[in-house]
Amino acid sequence: MAAVSEFESVQRLMVTPTLEPLSSLNVAEVWCPPRIGFVKINTDAAWKKESSMAAEGRAALRGLKKAIQNDFKMVVMESDSKGLVDGVGGKQGNNLLMEIRKLSSRFESLEWRWVPRSCNGAAHCGWAL
């Protein structure tokens, strides 16, 4: 439920004018909306029989495929898996990372970002449903 509360507080920030400059808000601790024209995909995964990296990679791959199906061209991918974000940006890797890189070429713009778990609460909550 903390993720729902976090999402609602961000929604209020988006629609409620504030006199506070954005620099005074602690944006590192909350989810932030994407820039205009971009779609943001936050991924999270749970695992039992596979490694966390494989589960996170599979979740990211599913998100990329959904973005392609919906014809999204400018995407920000966020994950709380630093290994995944670093792996996607590298040149080496397993079949899963290579498949992610191959799909990445289908976007006009695709940004990968690592976010702390505290900023990925909505994705975590969605996975738990």
UniProtKB/TrEMBL annotation:
One Pfam family in the UniProt entry: RVT_3
> Known CDD domains for this protein?
RNase_H_like
Q: Which Gene3D superfamilies match?
A: Ribonuclease H-like superfamily/Ribonuclease H
The record's GO molecular-function terms, alphabetically, read:
nucleic acid binding; RNA-DNA hybrid ribonuclease activity
InterPro entries named in the record = RNase_H-like, RNase_H-like_dom_plant, RNaseH-like_sf, RNaseH_domain, RNaseH_sf
**Can you give the residue ranges of the RNase H type-1 domain?**
48-125
Q: What is this protein called?
A: RNase H type-1 domain-containing protein
